[in-house]
Specification:
CATH architecture: Orthogonal Bundle
Number of strands: 12
Strand order of the largest sheet: 1-2-8-5-3
Structural class: alpha+beta
Number of domains: 1
Helix content: 40-55%
Largest sheet: 5 strands, mixed
Length: 475
């Protein structure tokens, strides 16, 4: 028995030696992890604020190639670049790569969001969100969204000679979100939610040092206040459900998520999953759409021929309506060129610079080892501004998207790709098209600042894009 045990230990030792040797033959990507905790975080953040982040990554690619290692926000990271890398990230099995954000971002948003979950949990939560965000459901909310847009323009644009677009678009998209997604009407609570949300966003990509004087600390405090408000809304909606016995799940997103039941008749999503994903939807619905609309207005001001084509399309739709008649889902389907303008805007100025994944096991890609537990960073603009994929990438040309098959898969990734495509992309399309319709048919505008922008972490045009406006006809 002792002899057999010794033989067993011998072979176990051989196995682990060979395993270590096998791993050691796979090289880590080139690059440096830099200073512990900080790494290259400050360098990247400085580059983003100076609008040189793409150049910063291009320099890495020139120095190390399309795969390199660095350290961001306290974690060892591998940066991947190129069409093949995008495809690998968006099609990888959920047991290989997790759509996991940095720990610092998880602490702000939550760890049970769609970005963090995999396998059956990802499918369950995504299906729940899509019940509300799918086109068939959104058709029911066109009128309500149009009402919010008209009220916004009457309050913030009519009678004004100059406005600053980005903060106004953030007000608009947040009001739409509060109304359609949370059933939260205008008032003190909505105002406090806006204030807390904006403070929370300021620390999303900050260096994760949780000390009282840091942006990250302030962001965490604001996140707790926002989460408390969302929990309060959930309790109110749940009470309404119990009081009425039944409720229309199409009332708002929270009501929709609470109404979904599993086979045992219990709520299909935990309260934490609802809260975390409401936080995620808030970020996606507030900043990304407001930034997209803002930069569409900037490009329309700089591209007279594009503006003329958008105006022609929208005025044809306006002329087909009776006085005071609302837009319909069918009207939105006719706004094909306008949406190509939005797509080209997303290509050149993607609201989301990049995102992180997490290696759940040792991965070999491009001849290098990505160790288990390391972050994986991809940046959307790196393929969207690639001259070999999009000729003359700095030229604003909406006709690039006239034929979808002309754009190679996994090269335009403003909405993600594969099974991880953004579930709110249709919501963003409706919101953007309706807003542009009213702006181009009711107003003209001229820029009052240059075309520069910075990232903090999302793109912010110079001075928030101030414009001089002239009203053409009443709302």
């Amino acid at each position: 028995m002792t002899t057999l045990f010794i033989i067993f230990l011998f072979f176990i030792s051989i196995f682990f030696v060979l395993k270590r040797r096998g791993r050691s033959t796979r090289k880590l990507p080139p690059g440096s992890l830099g200073i512990p905790i900080i790494g290259q975080s400050l360098d990247l953040l400085r580059a983003m604020r100076a609008n040189t982040a793409e150049k910063w990554l291009e320099n890495r690619i020139k120095k190390y190639g399309p795969i390199s290692k660095l350290s961001l926000f306290g974690k060892p990271t591998v940066f991947l670049h190129g069409h093949a890398a995008n495809k690998f990230i968006f099609t990888a099995d959920s047991s290989t790569i997790a759509t996991q954000q940095t720990k610092s971002i998880q602490m702000i948003i939550g760890e049970r969001t769609l970005l963090e979950l995999g396998g059956d949990d990802h499918k369950r939560v995504r299906n729940a969100l899509m019940l509300f965000l799918k086109p068939e459901s959104l058709k029911l909310y066109v009128g309500k969204m149009e009402e919010e847009i008209r009220m916004h323009l009457e309050k913030h644009w009519l009678g004004k000679q100059q406005v600053t677009v980005l903060p106004l678009m953030k007000i608009l998209t947040f009001n739409i979100m509060c109304s359609l997604l949370f059933g939260l009407e205008r008032g003190t609570r909505r105002d406090k939610l806006v204030e807390g949300f904006e403070q929370m966003m300021e620390g999303m990509w900050a260096v994760p040092v949780n000390l009282p004087f840091t942006r990250y600390h302030r962001s965490l405090k604001a996140s707790k206040k926002v989460r408390d408000t969302v929990k309060e809304l959930i309790r109110e909606k749940r009470s309404e459900l119990k009081g009425k016995g039944v409720t229309d799940p199409r009332q708002d997103l929270i009501a929709c998520l609470l109404s979904i039941r599993n086979e045992e008749g219990e709520e299909a999503l935990t309260e934490k999953e609802i809260v975390d994903n409401i936080m995620l939807v808030m970020i996606a619905g507030h900043d990304t759409s407001s930034i997209l609309i803002t930069f569409v207005l900037q490009f329309l001001a700089n591209e007279p021929s594009v503006h003329a084509a958008v105006l022609q399309e929208q005025e044809e739709i306006a002329r087909s309506k009776k006085s005071g008649e609302d837009l319909t889902w069918e009207d939105l389907a006719k706004m094909k060129y306008t949406w190509r303008v939005a797509m080209e805007t997303l290509r050149i100025v993607p609201p989301i610079f990049g995102s992180f994944r997490k290696a759940l096991k040792d991965i070999e890609f491009g001849g290098y080892l990505i160790p288990k537990g390391w972050q994986i960073l991809w940046a959307s603009s790196m393929t969207q501004m690639d001259n070999s994929i999009f000729p003359e990438p700095t030229k604003f040309d909406p006709n690039r998207f006239e034929n979808k098959s002309s754009v190679p898969p996994y090269c335009f990734v403003a909405f993600g790709g594969g099974t991880h495509i953004c579930p709110g992309n249709e919501f963003a399309r409706v919101e953007t098209l309706m807003t542009i319709h009213y702006l181009v048919t009711r107003f003209t505008w001229k820029l009052c600042a240059d075309n520069s922008f910075s990232r903090d972490p999302m793109p912010v045009p110079a001075q928030g894009l101030p414009v001089r406006i002239t009203q053409k006809k009443p709302l």
